[in-house]
Each structure stands twice: as structure tokens, then as C-alpha cells.
Specification:
The protein is of the alpha/beta class. It contains 11 helices and 13 strands. It binds NADP nicotinamide-adenine-dinucleotide phosphate and ligand F7E. Ligand F7E is lined by residues 86, 88-89, 127-129, 181-182, 191-193, 196, 214-216, 219, 221, 255, 279, 281, 284.
Length: 324
């Protein structure tokens, strides 16, 4: 039985990846970060909790001995590094912590592999945020597009991306970067724009809120479904050689487009949407559209969910939970 260790197992992607790997027959271990309030920390992995409860361990990406203890004993076949302070706007407020979890955290894991489990294959959750406002002439970002980040988060992810490449070349570690564009689901944190819109709109529909307050409505993102993207993560580690791959849908929509679809579907007037400078970023990434042909050619991966199917699932989730 193959073993996998996931950092960030209780996050959006970690929870879907864990379910996917269990279905594929892996024994899955997970790292939980110590939070003062533990209630609800594992709600995203409730449905599989009993299967993995014995394999959940406290550790922290910024605490090297905690990682070494686990990696040297488990010696996992696959290590997926999904843990991070992952909110871009918050990274402007907490740049040092963001950088520590992402940059230092990634080096810590690679050092553990190097010293105590050199056969472990390593997946790094790299991000389209690393591109900043670089766009190719054809409107896409791909693996060869210059990476010029515009946020502390993007900058920390770029450091981690490079350190993965350096350890791959220097020490022959099987270490790959998945350069994932935005991916969403009902399990997305509610302070990310998609789930904020879906949840707030259902609240308005049910008379529980008056308005939705957002920042930049013109920003464009390439939004896919997290379930599709965790399949790609496993495919990347099962590819014959370590490499770096863009994972995206190849389509882009604005925040305004997202709102239009949700509000029209729920029959809510658009004047319920307001904007506030509170949600504007000091430096904005304007537009993302990813070319995933390298990943498709190497592994056969392609997204299964459409943009609208993904949003429908998010709305249905909130309709069920909010009416309860
Ligand atoms: P998420 O829901 O925010 O999950 C982040 C996870 O990291 C949580 O489980 C969190 O634990 C954990 N974590 C935070 N700080 C930690 C620390 N110091 N030590 C150990 N664990 C820590 O993020 P996601 O959407 O699943 O994304 C997964 C990864 O992909 C992240 O690295 C993110 O930056 C990256 N990424 C995401 C996207 C996207 O669109 N979703 C796109 C590209 C890349 P607690 O919840 O207990 O704090
Ligand atoms: O913002 C605009 C905001 O916070 C999307 C993370 O998973 O994807 C994610 O980062 C856009 C931005 O995601 C609000 O200005 C408008 O242009 O949902 P978001 P993100 O910043 O793109 C990348 C790939 C990651 O790697 C990250 O980990 O929406 N926007 N109004 C707003 N955004 C938020 N959060 N809240 C608003 O009210």
C-alpha cells in the first residue's frame, strides 16, 4: 500500500485530496497545525475522519523538528505540501508569517526528505499568483511566462517554487511544482471571493443579509473546481519524471461575471452589491488565464467541471446549509 503525507489536510484542497487518495488505495497521513480553538478545525474531513484519525499528527511548517519527527518515521511515498497562509490580501497584513509558512516551510520539508527519506516524491502547491501581471501575447500564462509577483504571498510562493527546482537538480529529489490557477468549491474559505459571493447571495435571498460588499469587480480569474485539481496533483507525482506544470481551465471570468451569474440565478437585484476600499488590494493581479497543454500532454488531465457547474454546486451547498 502506497503512503501519502499531506500538509494542510484540513484545508479545501487537503480534504479533497485525502478523499481522492483514499479512494485510490493510499494510506493517508495528515499534518494538523495547532490552533487554540480546535472545534471545527477538521470539519472539511468529517466524512473520512474515522478512516484517518490515527494518522493525523500535530506539526507546523515553521517548526522543523516537528516535521522531521514525522517524515523520518513515516517515510511517505508521496508528500503533498498544501499547507500555507493562503489568503493574498492577508499576506499584505502578515507578510512575515506568510513567508515563513510558505518559503521556510517548503525548505524545511525538502531538508527532511533530503536527510531522512530521499525516495519520497514531493508535490509543491505553487500558484498562478507567482505570475503577477505577466501575460503572453496570446493572453495566456504558461510555464515559460515570466514570474513577477505582486503580493507577499506570490513572492513567497515564487521562492518555494524555485527552491523545489533547486533541490530537484542539486540532490536528485523527485520534487514537482503544480502551478495551480484559482480553484473553488463549497469547501472554499468564505473570505475568498467566490464562496463569499455564493454564501452572501443565498443569505440575501433568505432575508438574512441586506447587501454584498466587495472590492475590485473587474479582476479576472481562471476559476476551476478543486476536485478536478487534486486529481492533477496525484497525476503530477505519478508522472515518470519530476517537472513543473500549469493546471487551469483556459477560461477567464471577472468577479462581476461571477456576481451576474449568481444574482441572476437567484433572482436578486444587482443593486444589492456595493463596493468598499476595505477589500481592495495595495497591488492587484488583474487577469489570469492558464494554458494547461503541458499537463494535458504529459498526463491526459483535463477539467471535468464547467464554470457554471462549479458555481451551481456552491449555491446548492449554501441553500442547503443556510435554510437549515
Ligand atoms: P486553505 O484552504 O487555506 O488551506 C491551507 C491549509 O494550510 C490549512 O489546512 C491550514 O490549517 C494549513 N496551514 C496554515 N498554516 C500552517 C502552518 N504554519 N503549518 C501547517 N499547516 C498550516 O488552502 P487551499 O485552497 O486548500 O490551498 C492549498 C494550497 O494550494 C495552499 O498552499 C495554497 O496557497 C495553494 N494554492 C491554492 C490555490 C486555490 O485557488 N485554492 C491556487 C494555487 C495554490 P488551518 O486551517 O488549521 O489553519
Ligand atoms: O480573490 C477580488 C480580488 O481572494 C480573487 C488563493 O487561493 O487564488 C487565490 O487568490 C479576486 C481578486 O483569490 C473581493 O481583488 C473583489 O482580484 O478569491 P480571492 P486570489 O487572490 O486570486 C490564488 C491562485 C492562490 O494561490 C491563493 O492562495 O477577487 N475581490 N472583492 C475580492 N477578493 C476577496 N477575497 N474578497 C472580496 O471581497
Amino acid at each position: 500500500m502506497k503512503t501519502a503525507l499531506i500538509t494542510g489536510i484540513n484545508g479545501q484542497d487537503g480534504s479533497y485530496l485525502c478523499e481522492h487518495l483514499l479512494q485510490e488505495g493510499y494510506k493517508v497521513y495528515g499534518i494538523l497545525k495547532r490552533n487554540s480553538v480546535t472545534e471545527n478545525q477538521t470539519f472539511r474531513i468529517n466524512s473520512i475522519f474515522d478512516e484517518i484519525a490515527d494518522n493525523l499528527e500535530y506539526a507546523d511548517l515553521t517548526d522543523m523538528p516537528s516535521l522531521l519527527r514525522l517524515i523520518s518515521t513515516i517515510k511517505p511515498d508521496h508528500l503533498y505540501n498544501l499547507g500555507a497562509q493562503s489568503h493574498v490580501q492577508i499576506s499584505f497584513n502578515q507578510p512575515v508569517y506568510t513567508s515563513k509558512t510558505i518559503s521556510e516551510g517548503t525548505i524545511n520539508l525538502l531538508e527532511c526528505i533530503k536527510s531522512s527519506s530521499p525516495k519520497t516524491k514531493f508535490y509543491q502547491a505553487s500558484s498562478s499568483e507567482m505570475f503577477g501581471n505577466s501575460i503572453e501575447k496570446d493572453g495566456f500564462q504558461r510555464e515559460s511566462t515570466p514570474m513577477i509577483p505582486v503580493s507577499p504571498y506570490g513572492s513567497a510562493k515564487l521562492f518555494a517554487y524555485n527552491i523545489v527546482r533547486i533541490y530537484r537538480k542539486s540532490y536528485k529529489i523527485f520534487a514537482s511544482n503544480g502551478i495551480l490557477f484559482n480553484h473553488e468549491s463549497p469547501r472554499r474559505g468564505i473570505n475568498f471571493v467566490t464562496n463569499k459571493i455564493a454564501r452572501e447571495a443565498v443569505m440575501i435571498k433568505n432575508g438574512l443579509s441586506d447587501k454584498l460588499v466587495l472590492g475590485n469587480l473587474q479582476a479576472k480569474r481562471d476559476w476551476g473546481h478543486a476536485k478536478d485539481y487534486v486529481r492533477a496533483m496525484e497525476m503530477i507525482l505519478n508522472h515518470k519524471e519530476p517537472d513543473d506544470f500549469v493546471c487551469a481551465t483556459g477560461q477567464t471570468h471577472s468577479v462581476q461575471d461571477f456576481c451576474d451569474y449568481v444574482f441572476k440565478k437567484l433572482n436578486i437585484p444587482m443593486n444589492k452589491i456595493e463596493t468598499s476600499s476595505k477589500y481592495l488590494r495595495p497591488y492587484e493581479l488583474e487577469e489570469l488565464k492558464g494554458d494547461f497543454s503541458k499537463l494535458k500532454n504529459a498526463t491526459g488531465w483535463k477539467p471535468e467541471y464547467t464554470f457554471h457547474e462549479m458555481i451551481d454546486e456552491m449555491i446548492e451547498h449554501w441553500e442547503k446549509n443556510i435554510s437549515k
